[in-house]
């Protein structure tokens, strides 16, 4: 397995799509400062899932997107694709070539792909973890990483050593397994509680089921009784409804007869009204004639009185001679007699006419009275008929209301019977369901016992697995210890191959050797003294300052690299201060013996 290619687009300084192809062996990327060499390593770290912006030498994760230049606008996303040759099957995936793509947008959204298919960050990490590469693996050593590892404390180096030894993934798997075991233990405890609770509730549930059966029997009897009563009531209501229907039909027949009689009475009233309208003008004319004749009779009576006065006046002897002429008076008397005769004749005629008019008036009055009486009788008959008709209509409405009530009651009873039948069926189904549930509960109790036994067996297997993992962890720790010793030895060798080693090989004048080799440390304090000295343990001791200057000049002219120098001949250390020490602690000078020139 080896890296085949790396494609960068919009990542930091790589605005255009850039593809770096790698072959088996060592590949070097060279270039001046600021050309983007470190960005290639950052791209490898980023595509394998790095989530920290500081690890990518940035302030925030959006800094990995090309920010633009004076001649080129910024981009909206960064994309890196890493292609790995998997022909040897080192990665647990059925492809001879694996492409991992990470894409990030300026709004913070991100995507991961494996061979063009969308995936999660966890999928990428799990794919790379078994192969020894990934965002936290030691195979990528960035700027300052080597110095940080060499200068770190022993407890900080542990994680790096575990990572190099391949223990980190086992530790994570162990933590995951422990979490699963804790979850299983919690589920098992809950299952045990549920089993105990169900067992505790079984007896009360049995008693409740028996009570429910008896209650269902009583309810069934009660429903049957109510149904029988409802059926009897329905029969009674139907008989009453038939009787009321017959009465209603009879009343409707009588109503038709009364309506016919009322129409006849109305016709008779109309006839009398018409006759009254015909007689009324004649009666009015008779009244007028009677009034004229009465006036004429009064005039005749007045004329008779005047004639009587005049006759009486003429019959008296004349008192004086100076009165009117007798002949004239006779003529007047004759004229008055004629007028009286005429008046008498007219009075007799008027009296006859008056008698005839009175007879006609009486006849007309009689006819009008009869017509009025007939009219009033007809009005009373109409009122009686209307009252009877209203009474019949009221009876019809009352019977119709009763019939509607009977229909509603019949419908209600029918619905009640249907609902009662439905409830009876539902109750039967519920009884069957309750019986089935009870049988299932009785069967589930046995199933819970079996599940409990399986869980206990799984717990025992898990405990055995934990024990084996702990043994593997101990073996890994032993391997880590051996690897730590080897790393320290390799580190010393690497430092010797640097400037210090070059100086010792060329052996300029005034050098006494490496500090760690010049010191004589009591047994058991080697690690403590090495930690206290740190990088000074690999320094080269000189006899004086001139020797140190000559050594520096030799390193510069011979391009020997860097080296730490410890100057000798500048005096001994000061007196030891009387300071309190923790329990078990000693002064370093009491367990280390050094040559006089480096004291």
Structure description:
Pfam families: SMC_hinge, SMC_N. The structure is a single chain. By secondary structure, the chain is of the alpha+beta class. The protein has three domains: 1-143, Rossmann fold (3-Layer(aba) Sandwich), CATH 3.40.50.300; 151-316 and 325-487, no CATH class; 497-599, Taq DNA Polymerase, Chain T, domain 4, CATH 1.20.1060. 66% of the residues lie in helices and 9% in strands. It has helices at residues 37-47, 121-129, 145-151, 154-165, 167-315, 326-496, 499-506, 515-518, 526-533, 545-558, and strands spanning 2-9, 18-21, 77-85, 97-105, 110-114, 117-119, 511-514, 520-521, 540-542, 565-566, 592-593. The strands form three sheets. The protein has a six-stranded antiparallel beta sheet. Strands 7-9-10 form a three-stranded mixed beta sheet. The chain has a two-stranded antiparallel ribbon with strand order 8-11. The chain is elongated. The model is unreliable at 318-322 and 492-497 (pLDDT under 50).
Mean pLDDT: 76
Q: What is the count of helical runs?
A: 10
> In whole angstroms, how far apart are the ends?
53 Å
Overall shape: elongated
| Percentage of residues assigned to helices | 55-70%
**How many beta strands in the DSSP annotation?**
11
Q: How much β-strand is present in the residues?
A: 5-15%
Radius of gyration: 70 Å
Helix/sheet category:
alpha+beta
How many separate domains make up the residues? 3
Oligomer: single chain
Which residue ranges are poorly predicted, with pLDDT under 50 across at least 5 consecutive positions?
318-322, 492-497
Q: What profile does the largest beta sheet have?
A: 6 strands, antiparallel
Q: Strand order within the widest sheet?
A: 2-1-3-4-5-6
Order of helices and strands: EEHEEEEHHHHHHEHEHEHEE
């Amino acid at each position: 397995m080896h890296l085949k290619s790396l494609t960068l687009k919009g990542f930091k300084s790589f605005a255009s799509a850039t593809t770096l192809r790698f072959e088996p062996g060592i590949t070097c990327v060279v270039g001046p400062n600021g050309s983007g060499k470190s960005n290639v390593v950052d791209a490898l770290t980023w595509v394998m899932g790095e989530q920290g912006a500081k690890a990518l030498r940035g302030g925030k994760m959006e800094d990995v997107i090309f920010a633009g230049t004076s001649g080129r606008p910024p981009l909206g996303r960064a994309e890196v694709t890493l292609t790995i040759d998997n022909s040897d099957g080192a990665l647990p995936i059925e492809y001879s070539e694996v492409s991992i793509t990470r894409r990030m947008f300026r709004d913070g959204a991100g995507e991961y792909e494996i061979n063009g298919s969308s995936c999660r960050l966890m999928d990428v990490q799990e794919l790379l973890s078994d192969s020894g590469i990934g965002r936290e693996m030691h195979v990528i050593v960035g700027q300052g990483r080597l110095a940080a590892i060499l200068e770190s404390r022993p407890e900080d180096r542990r994680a790096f050593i575990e990572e190099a030894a391949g223990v980190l993934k086992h530790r994570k798997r162990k933590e995951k397994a422990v979490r699963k075991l804790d979850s299983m233990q919690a589920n098992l405890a809950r299952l045990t509680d549920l089993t105990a609770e169900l067992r505790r509730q079984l007896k009360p549930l049995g008693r409740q089921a028996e009570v429910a059966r008896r209650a269902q029997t009583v309810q069934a009897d009660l429903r049957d009784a109510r149904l029988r009563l409802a059926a009897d009531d329905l029969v009674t209501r139907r008989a009453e409804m038939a009787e009321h229907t017959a009465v209603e039909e009879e009343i409707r027949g009588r109503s038709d007869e009364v309506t016919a009689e009322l129409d006849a009475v109305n016709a008779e009233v109309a006839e009398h009204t018409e006759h009254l309208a015909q007689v009324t003008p004649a009666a009015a004319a008779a009244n007028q004639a009677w009034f004229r004749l009465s006036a004429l009779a009064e005039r005749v009576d007045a004329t008779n009185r005047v004639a009587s006065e005049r006759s009486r006046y003429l019959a008296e002897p004349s008192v004086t001679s100076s009165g009117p002429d007798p002949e004239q008076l006779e003529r007047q008397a004759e004229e008055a007699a004629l007028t009286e005769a005429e008046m008498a004749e007219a009075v007799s005629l008027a009296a006859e006419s008056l008698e005839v008019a009175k007879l006609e008036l009486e006849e007309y009055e009689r006819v009008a009275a009869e017509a009025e009486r007939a009219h009033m009788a007809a009005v009373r008959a109409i009122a009686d008929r209307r009252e009877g008709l209203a009474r019949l209509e009221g009876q019809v409405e009352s019977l119709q209301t009763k019939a509607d009530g009977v229909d509603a009651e019949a419908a209600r009873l029918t619905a009640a019977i249907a609902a009662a039948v439905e409830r009876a069926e539902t109750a039967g189904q519920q009884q069957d369901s309750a019986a089935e549930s009870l049988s299932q509960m009785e069967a589930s109790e046995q199933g819970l016992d079996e599940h409990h036994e399986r869980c206990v067996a799984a717990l025992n297997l898990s405990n055995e697995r934990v024990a084996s993992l702990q043994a593997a962890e101990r073996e890994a720790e032993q391997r880590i210890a051996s690897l730590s010793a080897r790393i320290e030895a390799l580190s010393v060798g690497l430092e010797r191959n640097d400037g210090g080693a070059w100086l010792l090989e060329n052996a300029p004048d005034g050098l006494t050797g490496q500090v760690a080799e010049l010191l004589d440390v009591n047994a058991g304090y080697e690690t403590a003294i090495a930690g206290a000295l740190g990088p000074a343990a690999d320094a080269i001791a000189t006899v004086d300052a001139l020797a140190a200057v000559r050594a520096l000049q030799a390193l510069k002219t011979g391009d020997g690299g860097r080296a730490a120098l410890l100057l000798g001949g500048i005096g001994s250390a000061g007196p030891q201060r009387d300071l309190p020490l923790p329990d078990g602690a000693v002064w370093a000078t009491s367990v280390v013996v050094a040559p006089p020139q480096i004291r």
